[in-house]
Write a structure and sequence with these properties.
The protein is α+β, with helices and mostly antiparallel strands and 643 residues long. It is 47% helix and 14% strand. Among the domains are: 103-166 and 539-575 and 595-633, no CATH class; 362-427, no CATH class. It contains 26 helices and 13 strands. The chain starts with a helix and ends in a 9-residue tail after the last helix.
Length: 643
């Protein structure tokens, strides 16, 4: 008993008795009572601080209390702004590139599957002669096993290097080239707006109200100190730094979590340490008084209590963590920080897709119709053969004799068709199919919150430059050009395509209540654009089973090359219009579609699911009942009870 009493301090039982808590426990309760999604974010609304280039500007801190959340470098996000706006952004991701053509050998060898084609046309599995031909081909494959093995390794290599093996051509991402185009546009706009001083000194201007704006040395220094990795010393925006800043924030947050995890023993404690990284509160520390908090704040601002020059909270929040190094930029780019251009677009509403099949008259039906029409017209024009008295009876006798003779051998329809005595009814045949997927048409309202050239540059001209670089033809000289970028686009849960191109882009300048300022510069621009899907038709795959199952069957007949071929077809499956549509329906994330290691895991999981279906007794019962012996046996059953 004495040892127990010695281990319990008075402060411990007294705190428990009056339900008093430690500083961190109090903070946890306060956080829980005012929890917001901003607590889980490391992004903000500064230039490049969000994955979309055009987030809505936040309210003042006095109208919307900010939460730092998981941000290591940044001021965080307001609670209302996070829940009312940021959580509900519709963001599209674009990745620009150039066409890259597939090897004709891979394309010809992979765009068609003989077994799938046979099943689609005949509704049956492989015939005896198909199997015989497959066996003959196996003999050839064994003789050239080195070539076959090299082809299979090549297919796996192309899969992990993000190279298509079944499409005629795909998009080869060239985002550095795209961002270079954006940087060129922004550099010219910065000079024209007067944000960068002119070389050899500025031209003299009058002292009236219409003199041109000049961005002074003091202003450039303030912008560079606030975000040293975003602005050049000249005052121009570093587009490449802006493109990858959100990913650099993500890496800083992850690094803080890893450091906390290394210093703790459990994941929960690591999350707790990362969550309170910026709070400066230990486990048993008491909550500071209000006066202590004020003194701490004044000390952080370099002033003393009562100093009239105390800095504001806004000034403290703009202090940057320091200029980032080349390694920080490189690591962010290796994490695909600038691999996409993302835009917040206006809500597009509901989405719809339609699919149609076109049928038409077959050629044989047309020929029979022409023969019947010609015979009918000839019979009518010749008065049924009754050219003179008694001739009609002779013609009738000859026709009857020919009809009877051909009828005995099953060809009476020939006489009927040739004489126009009957019209042949032949069903129509399939001509073509069409898929009208969701039209990718978007609208973005670009409005500057301040009547300042730098604000106009960040909120209006930068998104415009990104859209122009993606949609306009690319110059190949002073007076020549080539096609615009081809691109991939992803609109989660709505539509996506691995091969698209801007087919329209329009800007409406001067929108909203204050269209232009006194310098006749637009205060608001509405961008409207649409992206054409160049992938063409979408078809549903028709497989006789899983790749694992088909590999088992191939191994049963002793075809090792076929086993390897079937496995590579399943686990290294290429994307197409069908897989993109399935991804849109399921709102599949961007990372699961662009990173081949994650896609390989998805393919492997699908093969496991297909294996379950392939080995299902119900499936094999349906397959056996659909064979010729099965249909013969089904004649002795009563049939379906459907009415």
């Amino acid at each position: 008993m004495a040892s127990i009493l010695n281990s319990v301090r008075d402060t411990t039982w007294l705190r428990n008795a009056v339900l008093a808590k430690t500083a961190k426990a109090k903070m946890l309760d306060a956080r829980a009572s005012t929890f917001t999604t901003a607590d889980l974010k490391f992004t903000d609304t500064r230039l490049g601080g969000n994955f979309c280039i055009n987030p809505l500007p936040q309210f003042t801190r006095y109208a919307d209390i900010k939460r730092r959340g998981l941000a290591v470098d940044g001021a965080g996000m307001g609670r209302y702004h996070s829940e009312a706006f940021d959580d509900h952004y519709q963001i599209i991701h674009l990745r620009m590139g150039i066409p890259t053509f597939n090897s004709l050998a891979f394309f010809i060898g992979s765009f068609y599957d003989a077994q799938a084609g046979l099943a689609a046309r005949t509704g049956r599995a492989s015939s005896f002669f198909f199997t015989l031909g497959n066996a003959a081909g196996w003999v050839v494959s064994v003789m050239s096993w080195k070539l076959q093995a090299l082809a299979m390794l090549g297919k796996a290599f192309l899969f992990f290097t993000e190279t298509s093996t079944s499409k005629f051509y795909t998009v080869k991402p060239t985002m550095p080239l795209y961002w270079t185009s954006v940087q060129n546009i922004m550099s010219q706009l910065s000079v024209n707006l007067g944000l960068i001083p002119r070389a050899f000194g500025n031209d003299p201007v009058g002292g009236g109200p219409n003199q041109g704006y000049q961005f002074g040395e003091r202003e450039r220094k303030i912008m560079n100190e606030a975000m040293p990795s975003t602005f050049f010393n000249s005052g121009n925006i570093d587009v490449f730094a802006v493109a990858g800043r959100a990913q650099r924030l993500a890496r800083k947050q992850m690094r803080a979590f890893e450091n906390a995890n290394a210093a703790t023993t459990t994941v929960a404690s690591a999350l707790n340490a990362a969550y309170f990284a910026g709070e400066g509160v230990s486990e048993n520390e008491t909550m500071p008084s209000y006066q202590a908090y004020i003194n701490k704040w004044l000390k952080s601002s370099g002033t003393t209590p009562g100093d009239a020059k105390a800095q504001t909270l806004e000034t403290i929040d703009t202090l940057a963590a320091g200029k980032e190094s080349f390694g920080d930029f490189l690591e962010a780019e290796l994490d695909d920080g600038g691999a996409f251009a993302s835009f917040r677009v206006n809500y597009t509403g509901s989405v719809s897709e339609s699919f149609s099949n076109q049928t038409g008259e077959s050629e044989i039906a047309s020929k029979f119709a022409n023969l019947s029409s010609s015979g009918r017209n000839l019979t009518f024009n010749l008065a049924g053969g009754n050219l003179f008295p008694g001739a009609g009876a002779v013609v009738e006798a000859i026709t009857s004799f020919a009809t009877g003779a051909l009828g005995s051998v099953g060809l009476s329809g020939v006489v009927a068709a040739l004489s126009g005595g009957a019209v042949v009814d032949i069903p129509q045949q399939w001509k073509s199919s069409m898929a009208n997927l969701t039209k990718s048409t978007y609208t973005i309202d670009l409005v500057t919150p301040y009547n300042h050239p730098m604000a106009q540059l960040m909120y209006i001209y930068l998104p415009m430059a990104m859209l122009m670089a993606a949609a306009l033809p690319r110059a190949t000289g002073k007076q020549s050009y080539t096609s615009p970028f081809v691109l991939e686009y992803y609109d989660k849960g709505r539509t996506q395509s691995r091969l698209g191109m801007f087919d329209s882009l329009s800007f409406t300048r001067g929108i909203h209540n204050l269209g232009f300022n006194k310098d006749q510069r637009a205060m608001g621009v509405r961008a409207t654009f649409s992206i054409a899907d160049m992938t063409g038709m979408m078809s549903i795959p028709l497989s006789q089973g899983s790749s694992l199952g088909e590999a088992v069957l191939a191994g049963a007949i002793g075809s090792p090359m076929a086993v390897v071929n079937k496995l590579t077809d399943g686990f290294f499956d290429d994307h197409n219009a069908y897989s993109d549509y399935m991804a849109s329906l399921a709102s599949l994330g961007l990372a699961d579609q662009i990173y081949r290691s994650r896609k390989f895991k998805l393919n492997a999981t699908r093969e496991m699911v297909r294996w379950e279906s392939w080995t299902s007794p119900s499936r094999w019962a349906a397959v056996m009942a659909d064979t010729l012996p099965g249909r013969l046996v089904s004649a002795f059953y009563t049939g379906t009870a459907r009415e």
